[in-house]
């Protein structure tokens, strides 16, 4: 084999190996959407973990968990597992915001990826349709104000909020990943299944 042929063969081998690495990284990102969340300027809009039932009891009180529908043991395990997946994907210091409902706050705390702050714009309007427009507007304003290159943000909320914000659905413990762009309607760049 002549010298140019050897160099060409070596170069082709290196290029093939690099392309295989890139393809593997793309497959890994598709398999674990949380890798996308670890990138700057990403937001996970997460539905609270499993809490049996629908809505809340008639005499529900916001700051009294015993009056609400709450996570069960499966929901607590689900939230803890998701937190483990997030940390494994590199999400270790997120800005975490939660609805004031106990099932959301507990989900947010069990993730263990950042301190949890209450954000009323994430509150449910399932039984309060009159709150929908105000909550969604406040949430869109909040998203527009977040830095495009900031750390990951996790918003723990309710199914109705995810539908109103993104048009998509999420099972308990699932959600959508948004890419911040300075607008009030960031683009959906991934979906997270439980």
According to CATH, what is the topology of the largest domain?
Rossmann fold
Q: Any guess at the CATH architecture of the largest domain?
A: 3-Layer(aba) Sandwich
The average pLDDT score comes to: 88
Instruction: Please describe the biggest sheet, giving its number of strands, its sense, and whether it closes into a barrel.
Output: 6 strands, mixed
Structural class: alpha/beta
Task: Describe the secondary-structure layout.
Blueprint lengths: L2 H29 L2 H4 L4 E6 L25 H16 L6 E4 L3 H10 L4 E3 L13 H14 L7 E5 L1 H8 L8 E5 L7 E6 L2
Parallel strand pairs: 1-4, 2-3, 2-4
Antiparallel strand pairs: 1-5, 5-6
Helix pairs in contact: 3-4
Structural overview:
- It is a single chain.
- By secondary structure, the chain is of the alpha/beta class.
- The protein folds into two domains: 1-31; 32-192, 3-Layer(aba) Sandwich (Rossmann fold), CATH 3.40.50.1240.
- It is built from six helices and six strands.
- It has helices spanning 3-31, 34-37, 73-88, 102-111, 132-145, 159-166, and strands at residues 42-47, 95-98, 116-118, 153-157, 175-179, 187-192.
- The protein has a six-stranded mixed β-sheet.
- Helix 3 (73-88) runs parallel beside helix 4.
- The longest helix has 29 residues, at 3-31.
- The relative contact order is 0.19.
- Residues 15-30 have low confidence and may be disordered.
């Amino acid at each position: 084999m002549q010298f140019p042929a050897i160099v060409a063969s070596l170069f082709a081998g290196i290029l093939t190996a690099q392309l295989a690495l890139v393809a593997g990284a793309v497959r890994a990102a598709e398999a674990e959407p949380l890798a996308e969340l670890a990138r700057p300027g990403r937001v996970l809009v997460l539905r609270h973990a499993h809490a049996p039932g629908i809505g809340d009891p008639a005499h529900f009180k916001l700051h009294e968990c015993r009056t609400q529908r709450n996570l069960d043991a499966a929901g607590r395990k689900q939230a803890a597992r998701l937190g483990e997946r997030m940390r494994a994907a590199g999400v270790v210091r997120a800005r975490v915001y939660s609805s004031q409902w106990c099932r959301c706050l507990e989900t947010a705390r069990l993730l263990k990826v950042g301190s949890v702050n209450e954000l009323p714009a994430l509150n449910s309007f399932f039984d309060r349709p009159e709150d929908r427009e105000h909550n969604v507007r406040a949430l869109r304003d909040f998203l527009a104000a977040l830095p495009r290159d900031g750390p990951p943000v996790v918003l723990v909320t309710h199914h109705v909020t995810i539908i109103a914000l993104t048009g998509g659905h999420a099972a308990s413990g699932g959600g959508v990943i948004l890419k911040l762009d300075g607008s009030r309607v960031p683009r959906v760049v991934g979906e997270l299944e439980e």
